[in-house]
């Protein structure tokens, strides 16, 4: 059983519980992005099994007529087994899923293979695939220029990993500055497909201002258990998605999220006390 403090951030251990969570969100105007917990598999059988689980999950969304999609991690569906394993499983998921498919971004040394796979599938499916990019990486400006005319969606996040300083911005103020710069570029240069992945009210406010100025469609994405009251309020006017982790590997996910950054621990404490 998932203890209460972790249960705030994980939608249960089973697909049925995760789908129930999406249904509850839909009733309040929020859509769901489902992520089965698991990553860094070195065994092809594990990667194949989670790829099949994602296909079943997508079928569950369609069967229950829920407003949601799925999000996969490259290392979960085979990247650490080999590029071929990742690409084969991603192709299988994209082909079978009757919903939008997000590809998460992981460590800095997986950026190129992830972008290549995203761009190929986004063009082949006329935009039914999305990818995450991290504002803390120094290369992200060039990445956004590359993706500006690509169909699909791009989720801009600040970045939860800790890449080396020579390839990344390490000061929070600098990451915030770059997030604003990149988000402004996206609203100016992207026709659509902008996903604002941030719990920072300053960034969601900026996105709303840029939308008013440029008219570019966008969506807001936040994690389960973080600023949920704001998610429901924003959903009254904008498209809002909640990123929903679930599965038996909840402990390692929760522990890592808290360990990675002090801000995550603060989010956890604030969520527990209801702010």
TrEMBL record:
<protein>
    <recommendedName>
        <fullName>proline dehydrogenase</fullName>
        <ecNumber>1.5.5.2</ecNumber>
    </recommendedName>
</protein>
<keyword id="KW-0274">FAD</keyword>
<dbReference type="InterPro" id="IPR002872">
    <property type="entry name" value="Proline_DH_dom"/>
</dbReference>
<keyword id="KW-0547">Nucleotide-binding</keyword>
<comment type="pathway">
    <text>Amino-acid degradation; L-proline degradation into L-glutamate; L-glutamate from L-proline: step 1/2.</text>
</comment>
<dbReference type="InterPro" id="IPR029041">
    <property type="entry name" value="FAD-linked_oxidoreductase-like"/>
</dbReference>
<feature type="domain" description="Proline dehydrogenase">
    <location>
        <begin position="18"/>
        <end position="267"/>
    </location>
</feature>
<keyword id="KW-0560">Oxidoreductase</keyword>
<dbReference type="Pfam" id="PF01619">
    <property type="entry name" value="Pro_dh"/>
</dbReference>
<keyword id="KW-0642">Proline metabolism</keyword>
<dbReference type="GO" id="GO:0004657">
    <property type="term" value="F:proline dehydrogenase activity"/>
</dbReference>
<dbReference type="InterPro" id="IPR008219">
    <property type="entry name" value="PRODH_bac_arc"/>
</dbReference>
<dbReference type="GO" id="GO:0010133">
    <property type="term" value="P:L-proline catabolic process to L-glutamate"/>
</dbReference>
<keyword id="KW-0285">Flavoprotein</keyword>
<dbReference type="InterPro" id="IPR015659">
    <property type="entry name" value="Proline_oxidase"/>
</dbReference>
<dbReference type="GO" id="GO:0000166">
    <property type="term" value="F:nucleotide binding"/>
</dbReference>
